[in-house]
Write a structure and sequence with these properties.
Elements (H helix, E strand, L loop, with lengths): L1 E5 L4 H12 L3 E6 L14 E4 L5 H10 L4 E4 L6 H6 L1 H21 L4 E7 L21 H20 L2 E7 L1 E3 L2 E2 L5 E3 L9 H6 L9 E4 L11 E6 H14 L5 E6 L4 E3 H12 L5 E4 L8 E2 L4 H7 L8 H14 L12
Parallel strand pairs: 1-2, 1-4, 2-3, 4-5, 5-6, 6-12, 7-11, 10-14, 11-15
Antiparallel strand pairs: 8-9, 11-13
């Protein structure tokens, strides 16, 4: 297939692009490089710099390419920032995606894989299934839920075929056949727990903050499900290929096991061999106590088979990448 990957210069988008290419698909990456990295885009993919909210740019893109499907990652993703800058998130996520969907419909591209999130759920102590109660704790999750609903209407009214993938905490680094870590997390700003924790042994920060210690969890800190980037990317390949036979899919993606913030930090200490200082601070607005996935549905229906479920392995791959890329991708001229 000829596949358009929006946001393909980002962490998950670039990894998925690499997996799509390995599966034999032709890929065009479309990214405005606001928070993505040109150096993360695999060399075999076509790269076009542009914004999903630009009607004229999308017209040119769809007029000059014959796409079979779109895998849509382009979005702002920071839950905390969404609570501080709501207009920014509504525009970047909901408005821009609406422009993209309108162009897809106009140019007859009727297959979509959408990058959604566990943040659409209300949260609960047991692993979340796709039909469990919805109730975002932050505006980021709400924008993703709004997009899911818009996609549902395009499915009903315009015959859009779609897969919504609600994933939990993407992490780790891609490793090549020689065992070299080649693609990892490099966000600006960085807010994800594992890379932030690894910045301490790298000498980039003095400590890691634990936001809230009074949650109703086993040690008082938030519980999250961590999924390796390779496993996450492979699920996107399975989903886009399944759109020939399935018209509407929604799947959770995780490992079905939750780790507390304290457990992640302790695992990072063991992997790096460094004493990592942790300081307890107040809760952040928008953090749910526990988000853990049940991925039984995608395993059963699409044969998804995660290869890297262990937190220790995940952090080891991330540590290998950050040690070998202390400055990330090093593209200092990109927009931030």
């Amino acid at each position: 297939m000829r596949i358009l990957v929006t946001g393909g210069a980002g962490y998950i988008g670039s990894a998925t692009t690499a997996h799509l290419l390995a599966a034999g698909h032709d890929v065009t990456v479309y990214d405005n490089l606001y928070r993505g990295h040109r150096g993360a885009v695999p060399g075999d993919a076509e790269f076009i710099q542009g914004d999903t909210g630009s009607s004229g740019s999308l017209d040119f893109l769809f007029q000059t390419h014959d796409f079979d499907a779109v895998v849509h990652f382009a979005a702002l993703i920071e839950a905390g920032e969404s609570m501080q800058q709501p207009a920014k998130y509504i525009h970047a996520n909901v408005v821009n995606t609406s422009v993209l969907l309108a162009k897809m419909n106009h140019y007859g591209v009727n297959k979509l894989v959408f990058s959604s999130t566990a943040a659409v759920f209300a949260g609960q102590d047991t692993p979340l299934r796709e039909d469990d109660p919805i109730g975002p704790n932050n505006l980021y999750g709400e924008t993703k839920l709004m997009i899911e609903r818009i996609i549902g209407w395009y499915h009903q009214l315009c015959d859009l075929r779609y897969a919504v993938l609600r994933y939990f905490n993407a992490c780790g680094a891609m490793v090549d056949e020689k065992g070299t870590a080649i693609r990892g997390e490099d966000h600006t700003p960085e807010t994800h727990l594992i890379p932030l924790t690894l910045q301490v042994p790298l000498g980039k920060r003095s400590h890691i903050s634990i936001f809230g210690t009074d949650y109703p969890t086993r040690d008082g800190t938030c519980v999250r499900d961590y999924i390796h980037i390779d496993d996450l990317a492979q699920a996107h390949v399975l989903a886009v290929e399944a759109l020939d036979d399935r018209a509407a899919m929604t799947y959770n993606l995780g490992n079905g096991r939750g780790y507390t913030v304290r457990e992640v930090i302790e695992t990072a200490r063991e992997v790096t061999g460094h004493e990592i200082s942790a300081i307890e601070v107040e809760r952040r607005p928008g953090d749910a106590p526990s988000l853990v996935a049940s991925s039984e549905k995608i395993i059963r229906e699409l044969g998804w088979n995660p290869q890297h479920p262990d937190l220790d392995d995940i952090i080891q791959s991330a540590w290998a990448w950050h040690k070998s890329h202390p400055d990330g991708y090093g593209d200092k001229n990109r927009n931030t």
